[in-house]
Amino acid sequence: MRRIKLTRWEKQLEDEIGRGEWVPVGKKEFDEIAQAIARKRKDAVLNVRVNKQDLDSIKEKARKLGVRYQTFIGEILHKVAVH
After folding, report:
1. Considering just the CA atoms, what is the radius of gyration of the chain in Å?
2. pLDDT at 23 exceeding the cut of 90
3. Where are the domains of the chain?
4. Could you say which of 1, 11, 29, 45 would form a disulfide bridge with 25 (CB–CB 3.0 to 4.6 Å)?
5. CA–CA dist 33, 39 (Å, integer)
6. Mean pLDDT of the chain
């Protein structure tokens, strides 16, 4: 069987679930969470040129966080867009 490589965050969640720190939610709360996730769905493509050193720095920060650099860039853009 093939093992899936988890990010640090995913490993932390797995550990928390194992310790019983997460609890089930009701249908209403589940639906609210599902709607919030749907609102964050990525449905546009962006092509942009950036400075190589900036991109290398972003990639390194993303690696340290255990996420893909494109996901990291998307989160940065989202934070700027909503604030």
Report:
1. 17
2. no
3. 7-41, 44-83
4. 29
5. 10
6. 90
